[in-house]
Amino acid sequence: MPSSPRSSVLALAAWIVLCFLAAATGAAWPPGEWYASLAKPAWNPPAWVFGPVWTTLYAAMAVAVWRVGRPGWSGRRRALTCFLVQLALNAAWTPVFFGLHAPGPALVVIVALFVAIAATIASFARHDRIAALLLAPYLAWVGFATVLNAELWRLNR
Predict the structure, then answer these.
(1) Cα–Cα distances in Å, from 43 out to 101, 114, 148?
(2) What single DSSP character describes residue 64?
(3) Which of 44, 56, 91, 136 could be joined to 40 by an S-S link, Cβ 3.0–4.6 Å?
(4) What is the pLDDT of residues 113-132, one digit of tens each?
(5) Torsion of CA 33, 46, 111, 143, to 10 degrees
(6) pLDDT score recorded for residue 155
(7) Sign of CA dihedral 56, 58, 61, 67
(8) How far apart are CA 39 and CA 91, in angstroms?
(9) How far are the Cα atoms of 14, 21, 28, 106, 118 from residue 17, in angstroms, in the given order?
(10) Can you give the pTM of this predicted structure?
(11) Which structural domains are found in the chain, ordered by start?
């Protein structure tokens, strides 16, 4: 059964809200003085980069999951489950890294997140190639963030 334009817009709005709720952990656990005091690699991005990058990635995530979440595909439940698992891991990383000041355990979370994003992309690709492609920059950024997390852990043990 095709959805109406109104319900489609409402679904997109709901996915946007859900994705940005995961982002809200950044407001609850900001980097603060602890992060500023860490030894960082020379290739650590400046602080101003993170906001625009994550905003763009969360918006792309919402559009991707909205595309896959529309009715009419038998694999939708698995794809949405993969998406929700990676979103939960995404939301968990910030309180572990910044809240607990625990780069080691955060590295475990972000590696699991990377794997979950890859699984989500594979699941999305079975139904909607554009949705899968929308998540590719997210996977790349989390790959970079994983290496950065590992280096921060190494430098500050």
Answers:
(1) 21, 21, 9
(2) H
(3) 44
(4) 999 999 999 999 999 999 99
(5) 180
(6) 98
(7) negative
(8) 24
(9) 5, 6, 16, 25, 23
(10) 0.93
(11) 5-155 (1.20.1260.100)
